[in-house]
Structures are given as C-alpha cells and as structure tokens.
Amino acid sequence: xxxxxxxxxxxxxxxxxxxxLPLARGAAAAPSRAVDLRxxxxxxxxxxxxxxxxxxxxxAPTALEPVISGRTIGLHHxxxxxxxxxxxxxxxxxxxxxxxSLERIVRASAVRPAERTIFNNxxxxxxxxxxxxxxxxxxxGRPPRTVQVLVEDSxxxxxxxxxxxxxxxxxxFGSGWLWLVQDPATRRLELLQTSNADxxxxxxxxxxxxxxxxxxxxxxxxxxxxxxxxVEGVFDRLLDWSFVEANLAKVARA
Length: 254
What we know:
Elements lengths: L3 E2 L64 H23 L9 H9 L5 H19 L10 H11 L2 H14 L4 E7 L6 E7 L4 H4 L3 E7 L6 H4 L3 H11 L3 H13 L1
Parallel strand pairs: 1-3
Antiparallel strand pairs: 2-3, 2-4
Helix pairs in contact: 1-3, 2-3, 5-8
C-alpha cells in the first residue's frame, strides 16, 4: 500500500554507548566508540518527562465525547496507562535506567534484548502519552496549510490520505498503533503500523507526528468490535493537527 510502512520495529545497529546512555551493569563499552553524554535531539513536541510518573490528561476525561466516552478514557488512562507506569517504576528500580527521562529509557532499552520488560513498559508509557496529545476536542477536519501541503505532496490529496489512514488503522492485525510520521531525509509523510509496544521512537529513522491507539482497550467499551467506526471518529473529529504542526516545527528548529 502506498506510503504505508508495515514493518515491525527495525533492528538497530547502534549500541547504547553511541546513544549517550549508560551501559547495563557488567557490560563493556565498545572500544571504538566514546560515550556521548549530550542529550538526544528532540523527537517531538511531547514534553520529555521523567519516567514512573503518570502524566495528567491534556483535557477533561469527558472532553472527547461522544467519540470516546469518559468511561473509556477513565479505564484507559487511570488503569491501563497507569499499569505500564507502575510496572516500569518497579522494573527500573536500582538499575542504570533509574533517574533517566522516559524517552532515554525507551531508546536505551530498545537496543538491549535482555531489557525487553523495561522496553515494553517504557514504550507503552511513551506511546500513550503521545496518543493523548494526538487527540483534542477541537481536533479533526483539515490540517493547517503548512501540514496540508505536506499531506498533498505525500499522498496526492487529503481525501486519499484519509482513505489510507482509515484502512491502515482499521486493518492492523492484532494490537498496535498507527502513526503519522515524517521521513527527515525526504520530508515526505508516511503511515507506519507498529505492533504491541513497538514505537518509532526506538527506530530513530522517522519523526512521529501523531498516533492512533488500536489496542482493543482504546475503543471496545464504546464500539465493541467496530474498530473502523472508532478510527473514523478519531480522524474526523479528534485528530489534533496543531500537535502535528508543533512536532514538525520543533524538529525543524532543532
């Protein structure tokens, strides 16, 4: 499908030291690479907060009704999201990851197969934070002109983009996420499907702009098996184009 990347998280060849992150206890740094302690460049307009803290929602729990009910938001944020935060706090206690920002934990654990539990919970925490900010009660409709031009250049038209977005999100097999991303090399926008906890933040080769959660807990209370109806409501009435624009602007200034 045109402009839809259905690959799972790419295998990263960079080690933790090359990302400026601490190595696991007992691990030796690659002798040919010095540790860069500078913070990584901003990957989005999302605040890079410390891990192990459940962030507040950017709007009231009932603000997205009738597309997403306050009951769903309460279950999703206060139970599902909180569970990832709590499990991450427990997993990093007493490790090299303790005290790092959430974004750095995601990047570091992604290149350590032995730290899959930390990665899964950190990535799910970060993905959910990005999802909350991708939605707005004042969202939906057409994007600002600066974003509209990129959409048309990348997909041909806004209508074609909408159709591909709905099909990709509705058709993703199992649990996962549909991301709107930008390839920094070409500046073209793409749709990226990731499964389970996988995230473009770990890939490092594309810039996340917005995301829709298509795990069942994001919509089942309101829509049961009708994922397509949920996705259509989110795209048409909630997708926060100002967040997309802010992500593009922040990365451009970096």
